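User: Just a sanity check before I run the rest of the batch. Below are the structure tokens for the first item. I only need the designed sequence back.
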């Protein structure tokens, strides 16, 4: 049972209504996470702005989705696992084996694997990574800017994981459940 109510976009007002209209126009729907975030237009707008900015970054949509899955598995967020598995497969074109492996921080491309492992390290160390941790991801070919983007992707996904775990958001994608707890 949800703990925070998802707003109905048809009856929303003010800034949340404006944001919902933009989401509807872009996606053809307003996912339950965003409907629930809309209880505070500041939360929804902050999420949308950071997500949009990172979408224009150097890492690309593919790595962004893989990072989202790695973080969601670490934070036991079934909503985000479900959403990013669907988006990764249907919209970005990532095969299911790659999506599944990303949840554990694994990828056949050593550079992608380094980014996923760095994300896991950030989470496991609560952001207090060592110089060696940063040097390892940079040695895989990431610039200082790209390392910053990995950190930002992790932060964005921690926001959505914590939000959905708090709200117990109804999953409106094919359900994928966390393998680890």
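Assistant: Here's the designed sequence for the first item:
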């Amino acid at each position: 049972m949800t703990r925070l109510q998802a707003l109905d976009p048809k009856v929303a007002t003010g800034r949340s209504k404006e944001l919902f209209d933009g989401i509807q126009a872009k996606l053809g729907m307003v996912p339950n996470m965003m409907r629930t975030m809309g209880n505070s237009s500041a939360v929804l707008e902050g999420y949308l702005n950071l997500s949009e900015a990172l979408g224009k970054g150097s890492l690309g949509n593919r790595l962004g989705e893989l990072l989202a899955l790695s973080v969601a598995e670490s934070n036991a967020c079934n909503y985000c696992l479900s959403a990013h598995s669907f988006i990764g497969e249907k919209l970005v074109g990532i095969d299911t084996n790659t999506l599944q492996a990303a949840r554990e921080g694994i990828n056949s491309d050593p550079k992608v694997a380094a980014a996923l492992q760095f994300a896991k390290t950030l989470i496991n160390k609560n952001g207090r990574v060592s110089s060696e941790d940063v040097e390892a991801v940079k040695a895989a070919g990431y610039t200082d800017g790209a390392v910053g983007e990995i950190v930002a992707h992790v932060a964005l996904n921690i926001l959505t994981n914590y939000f959905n775990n708090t709200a117990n958001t109804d999953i409106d994608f094919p359900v994928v459940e966390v393998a680890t707890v």
